[in-house]
Structure formats: structure tokens, C-alpha cells
Here is the input.
Amino acid sequence: MLQKLIKTIKNPIKALRFISLYLYHKFRKKRGVLLFIGMEPGGVFSLMHFGYEKCYGFEAYPERFEKLQKKYQNNPSIQLFNAAAANYDGEITFNISSNNDGASSSIGNFKKEWEQEYKGEKIEMIRSITVPCINLYNFCKKQNIEFIDEYVSDIQGMDLEVLKTLKPMIDKKQIGRITCEVAKDEKGNVYKDLPDNSETGFSKLLYTNYKLIAKGWGVLKDNTFDKIPEDAWEMDCRWILKN
Here is the structure.
């Protein structure tokens, strides 16, 4: 699995980070809970899950979820949910994007200002489906999760709104590490009909108990702030509990 993934990465520094992340989680003693929202079959979750006693994963896109379910069906430490994270429990409209196996699918719709191409084709929403949605704080209470060791989200414009549902746990210092996809302040949310997802918004939510320790894309390195291109709308950011 790791060799196949590394072959797709042309940047040697990024490849080294993937290898380091995999080795760290593969051979350390398992501990605590990983909560991962917005998954992909060959993504970062596949490198991290080894290091946790219990993993909860959420993926709204049914086709992706089926691949994940098949991949991890024999792993009792992983529990997967075909649902979108939102600020309530129920159902929600989920829009499927045209790019890279629906990589930019979201409950939102793209801003006109954010128009990009993937392999020569315009990225756009091509269909909408109805999927279950969950409030993560309600979920954690039902599962008796009192501490989340690692929280990771990549949910296309909804990262801040969903993280806000866990504010009671944030205020009580019940999450150890938080990694989210974040919009640049000057660019704003990629999705026109979704709420704030800016770095300033995250800072306001987290500044009391957490400190920012990394920025970049994909696999971050603690205490490293990668250069983000000026034309980029988004980046990944990581925070940890203050001492």
C-alpha cells in the first residue's frame, strides 16, 4: 500500500513525510481515539489508523464509502459512517464534483471566482444526492468519547462550522490535536453558500486552549510552516493543546 502511494508523489519532501507518518503510526504503541472526517481510500487515514486504539471515519460520498468499507471491513478498530458532518442530525443535500473521483464534493456549491481545471476539464458539480448527516458532538456523547487524541477534517468548506459543534470539548481541552482544511482570509470560502472557513475564524475558536504548529498541504510536519502559493485559496493547518 505504502509503495503504491509513494509512487504517485513526485515531490521527494512530500514522499518523505508520507513515509515518516506511516512509520511513526505503524510502530508506536496504539493510543486513544482518531476522529477523521472526509476520507479517501488511499489518503492520509491509511497511514495513520495503525496508531490508534479506536478510529471513527466519516465519508459522505457513497462510492468512496464503499471502497473504504471494503478496505477496512476486517479491522475491528475502525468504525466507518456513510454520512456528512454538519451542525445537526438528519439528512442533507450533498453535491458531487467532477474532479478526481469527486474529491471536491461538498454540501456547498463553488464560487464563480473559484474556477479551476483538473486534467484539462472544468471542475464543477455534476449531480446532487441526499445523504445522512450528523452532529459530531452528539455523536461523541452517544459513543461515550471523552477525549479525541487526533481530529482530522477535510470536508470542503465546512471544516470550521463542523469543528464549532465540538466547542464544549474544545473548551474542556478534550481534543489533543486538530488538523483541518482552512481558507485563506483574503480569499474566503471556495463554496459560495457555506459559512466562514477562514484562518481567522479558526483562531477565534481555538486561541484560548490551542496553538498553531503547522501549515501546508496533505501531510504536515509539526513546527513547520510551508510556503503557500499566493493564488491558493486553501491550506491545511494543525493546532495542538497548549501546555
Summary: The chain is about 25% helix and 30% strand.
